[in-house]
Amino acid sequence: MNFQRNILKNLQQWSERSNRKPLVLRGARQVGKTTAVKIFAEKFDHFVSLNLEKTDDREFFTRFDRLKDIVAAIFFRHNISSEEKRVLLFIDEIQAEPKAVAQLRYFYEDYPGLYVIAAGSLLETLLDFRNTFPVGRTEYLVMRPVAFSEFLKAAGESAAADLLSQVPLPDYAYPKLLQLFHTYALIGGMPEIIQQFVEHQDFTRLKPLYTTLLTAYQDDVQKYASSEARAQVLQHCIQNIFLEAAKRIKFQGFGYSNYGSRDIGEALRTLEKAMLVNLVYPTTEPLLPGTPDKRKQPYLQVVDTGLMNFFTGLQESLIGTRDLHEAYRGRIIHHWVGQQLLSTMQLPVENLRFWVREKKQSTAEVDFIIPFENKLVPVEVKSGTAGKLRSLHQFMEVSNHSFALRLYAGPVLLQQAVTSGGKNFYLLNLPYFLGEKLIEYVGWMKEEILSSAK
What we know:
The protein is α/β, with parallel strands linked by helices. The chain has helices at about 5-15, 35-40, 55-65, 65-75, 100-110, 125-130, 150-155, 160-165, 175-185, 190-200, 205-225, 230-245, 260-275, 305-310, 315-320, 330-340, 390-400, 440-454, and strands at about 25, 45-50, 85-90, 115-120, 140, 275-280, 280-285, 300, 355-360, 365, 370, 375-380, 405-410, 415-420, 425-430.
């Protein structure tokens, strides 16, 4: 079952570039990195897959110092001629041998015709204190949990997937897509869990899979923590990130602990490098670049909302929910929108942002802001009427444009609004399952406004 259509498209684009560099594929454990590469490998004449947690595969890099000898030994073992033109070399769990990381620069310089992809668990965390990636000699691609559009195709809902891609969404498509999104929102976007659900349609079969995922994350920490004390802080954070997700957090005493701000900050940044969490910082700027202010409390986004649902004990209560705004004080749907937005980001430097104004007499917070052309567009995840979006109205008062988005349990609706200060703006209301399509819809809104003005 192929969940990786989006990443396969990106891999294909990478492979077609004449100046491509070895690709480091990043992503949390079990998001499907290895499976995606194996599917992609079908386009090649030869595919060599190394797992450096295995002694025999790691030996290529420990035994030889010159890349020429390493490549010759790999080709010899796999019966590949040096004249072959389309060879894909996949180095999985590369963090197990830092010498292999150091060799990536020489693949780019000495073997430009060889297609090289590397991946690993807690990749950059290990290298923080042992080695560094060869700057300028590698490129990066991020792989995240399965997006809603990919879930629809995997579930055999090709007609629904086609309608989801239409801009604007036809009104008649809204009820069924909302129902399908609620199923997706319940179980999450981890490939193995989706595959199990699609095959058996049984929620009870999923429980051991969620637990296995958490155990795998904890095992990684034990392998790569630099000390026992640091491992304990990391273990505490892993056990509590799903409970603390979908809200702004303080490092000091995180998860009702006695740990200080420094220890928790280091641990959460480690988990961020492992792509288990995103620390989302606010900006006070309504204009580009919208620089995040890291002196303020971040919002905690975890790798997958389905995991959050399971470990907070909320899954059963979500069955049959008509509006996810009503669940968990709106935190679940807010988190899901964040996950959908992240699914559109392929570079490690990209992250979510939100906007705050924190004054004694006038505080405001907009859930997300997204860049569009030379603008920062506010995105609120709210039910209710347009007039109740107080923070969004305050953002629009000081913004340099007239575009705003609201995600809710309702159909596509473009309407005009006015702030308390008298500024007119356009509010595009979208069903919350369109979170991965927001940039397309801002473009559509712009065209609609321009055409109506003629």
